[in-house]
Amino acid sequence: MIVLNEITKTYPTLNGVNVVLKGISAVFPERKNVGIIGRNGAGKSTLMRLISGSEQPDSGTIFRRGRVSWPVGFSGGFSGSLTGAQNARFVARIYGMDIDAVAAFANAFSELGEYFYMPVKTYSSGMRARLAFALSMAIDFDVYLVDEITAVGDSRFQKKCRAAFDDRRDRSTLIIVSHDMTTISNYCDTCAWLRNGQLHFYDTIEEAKAAYECYGP
Q1: pTM for this one?
Q2: pLDDT tens, 35-61?
Q3: Phi, psi of 81 (to 5 degrees)
Q4: Of 22, 82, 172, 210, whose CB is crowded by the most CB atoms within 10 A?
């Protein structure tokens, strides 16, 4: 379970302070997959980083019960001077997982080949995303945060990503950011629309889709 209590997040800009999230309160229950939709720049990725704990709100509190992933596809936590293998082993130590098993899984799933043993700073953005996704799948989380990662790689790799999610959602909770309502419909039980700094929940995917299409993103 994840509970947000009056979460506010702002960023300074040349034109002043940009208030991205405005006092959001919400409950993400266990074993109920939630989709989050919204236009570009609405703050969806910011919200995911706050939920994961990789970034902190300006005010408000976040309660997490269970092991919550970093945003799948977010590779900002990697050390560029370390290899993919070294990063994998470091992450395994942090989460108290079998180091060799996590590294082996990440190597096989990411399909980086010899690059897995090269510094991450030599990776393309797509390669970093594949490593981040593979590491997310290598660790058993209670909640997976997903930010459009299924678009990474070619069609074959995307199919493998979707299969991994199908396996995880049987025993974990998914919170998914996507512009694609088909993705939301396939993976989620309910949906929330992030608009004007507020998170609006809908009882059904159909209600969220109708509102989103009617008023625009």
Answers
A1: 0.82
A2: 999 888 889 989 999 998 889 999 999
A3: -80, -15
A4: 172
